[in-house]
Design brief:
This protein is of the alpha+beta class and 177 residues long. The protein has three helices and seven strands; from the N terminus they run H-E-H-E-E-E-E-E-E-H.
Length: 177
């Protein structure tokens, strides 16, 4: 019996190590988000509350909406790309231009509170909301195609300002000046 356990022990250690490595890879992937993205949770929100907050905060920070899609299960708002100066690694090899945009995604989790029937899209519902940011650059060694890259710290700070203001607005109804 001891010989059998001695022979199986290395196999168990290898399987356990492989399982830990797979779990770590899944956890570090962040649910499939790309390296050029930013994602923050805004929690559960009513559609109308979120729409008002988005309008106020995006206008205050200069983000223009270019797309809005509202379906029974999903909400989607997308801003226009905003041109930004990328961090350069040298003018000859570094990217020439950068751009960023914001996206709000929502997934319906329940009907509006106090409703005894299925609500229409116009009446809204409660959605699980996330704020996403995407960043791309063009130029340099890779030529003239936009490509996703990790956002520089100043872009993340820009997105954080929008997120913090939206979070405060939807949670309390208070607007920061």
């Amino acid at each position: 019996m001891k010989d059998t356990l001695a022979n199986i022990r290395p196999l168990i250690v290898i399987l356990f190590s492989a399982a830990l490595a797979a779990a770590g890879a899944c956890a570090s992937s962040g649910g499939g988000d790309s390296i050029s993205s930013y994602r923050k949770d805004l929690g559960r929100q009513l559609e109308l509350t979120l729409e008002e907050a988005r309008l106020k905060i995006w206008n205050r920070h200069g983000w223009n909406q270019v797309r809005r899609q509202s379906e029974y299960q999903n909400l989607y708002w997308e801003s226009d790309w905003r041109g930004l100066v990328p961090e350069s690694g040298g003018t000859a090899t570094g990217p020439e231009r950068g751009r960023a945009r914001l996206i709000i995604r929502g997934r319906r989790v329940q009907e509006q509170l106090g409703s005894n029937r299925v609500s229409s899209d116009a009446e809204g519902g409660i959605y699980r909301i996330t704020l996403h940011g995407e960043y791309q650059v063009i130029g340099g060694i890779d030529g003239e195609t936009w490509r996703p890259v990790p956002p520089p710290e100043d872009v993340v700070e820009l997105w954080d300002l929008v997120y913090n203001d939206m979070y405060l607005e939807v949670r309390t109804g208070i607007t920061r000046n």
